[in-house]
Amino acid sequence: MVSTGLAGRRVLLGVTGGIAAYKPAELVRRLGEAGAEVRVVMTENAARFVTPLTFQALSGHPVRLSLWDEGAEAAMGHIELARWAQDILVAPASADFLARIAHGLADDLLTTLCLASAAPVYVAPAMNQQMWANPATQANLALLRTRGVGIFGPAAGAQACGDVGSGRLLEPDELVAALAASGQPGLLSGRRVVISAGPTYEDIDPVRFLGNRSSGRMGFAVAAAAAEAGAQVILVAGPVHLPTPAGVQRVDVRSARQMHAAVLAEATAADVYVAAAAVGDFRPLEVAAHKIKKRGDGGMTLELTQNPDILADVAALPQRPLLVGFAAETENVEAYARAKLERKRLDLIAANQVGGGLGFETEDNCLTLISADDITCLPTASKRELARQLIEIVAQRLEQRSAHNRDVAA
Ligand code: PMT
Prior knowledge:
Helix 6 packs across helix 9 and helix 11 crosses helix 15. A hairpin with a 2-residue loop joins strand 18 and strand 19. The chain is an alpha/beta fold. It has 2 domains: about 170 residues, Flavin prenyltransferase-like (Rossmann fold, 3-Layer(aba) Sandwich); about 200 residues, 3-Layer(aba) Sandwich (Rossmann fold). Strands 12-11-8-13-16-17-18-19 form an 8-stranded mixed β-sheet, with helices on both faces. The protein has a 5-stranded parallel β-sheet with strand order 2-1-3-4-5, sandwiched between helices. The protein has a two-stranded antiparallel ribbon with strand order 6-7. Helix content is about 35%, strand content about 25%. It starts with 9 loop residues before the first strand and ends with a helix. The site of ligand PMT has 27 residues, from helix 11, helix 13 and strand 16.
């Protein structure tokens, strides 16, 4: 059995209608492997996508569909079921379901259970990216958040409808990890973590800029993992098209100098700074006030000047946080990363090879974590999964640092 802290937990899994309704079948298995006892409640629409029998076979218990099922009510009434649950996880949670629980409706069994239960409620949204981005959906989520409902995901990527964007259900393993993390005090409880993510854009003129291929996925995944681990998270984001992870405070910036100012403003009070951003090393010496026009057939020369080094300046603070840098390299990955670790006086550097479907703009990555005294390889996995592993290691190092500081003070 996988040890996640879910052993013996009574999890009520709600399944709502949507193309992702088949995915929780695997989730039921994973929760079972983690030792949880699972009862499944489906909405009427979910049962149009996948048969209740699937969930019955996997959970080993009859699936509940309706408030008006006399036989099921005789076995375990809905109030009893609401009391039975120690956690309610709704995956996938449709836009319609989110709207209904946000407004306290109890017009079917699942919404009634959410209202009638004292158990914490977690939702894993899954829907078309346009529905996810709709202000009505976002307002419903904001309302649910203020009431303490945990929101897991969604992930971004290709959707069943052909669109690309946010709204994909998290993978079963990710949902199990998120549920396990929510029930625990959190490895980073009480810690303040600053994370930088994405590219920076350095303006050349009003229509052109120097940028890079960073999508922000790696840094956003680290922010999500740190928030799941209970940290207060400030995410300084360059120009990216990603939704803010649940529970994360986001500061949007464009240029390296703006990122520098935003990070430095937060770093003194931080326990950890994770620099996952791909910061432009140079910017044009001057930004043209008007669009630069072609002059004849000749080329043009752009004079560049160096940007401030954010990590080096955070390292120079009198009370510096634990410093985790990233290094994206196309060759000599370990050697170049080690050089950056030393030059920038970092505690840890996460090196990634660029290319072959890894590094920039990709869903997956693989990281080599290098410190002065250790090296750990995190093999290819989703950026979400790698971020979780990285956060575990960061939490251990923070603990070691706190213990060392206590010894010195004693
Ligand atoms: O965003 P994704 O598409 O998910 O891609 C993720 C990633 C590949 C961008 C990410 O995993 C990564 O490796 N980020 C660092 C990119 C890089 O190589 O940076 P660098 O070698 O230019 O800088 C090394 C470190 O110094 C980085 O932590 C960087 O944030 C920091 N730095 C760099 C320049 C600067 N002026 N100030 C800095 O603090």
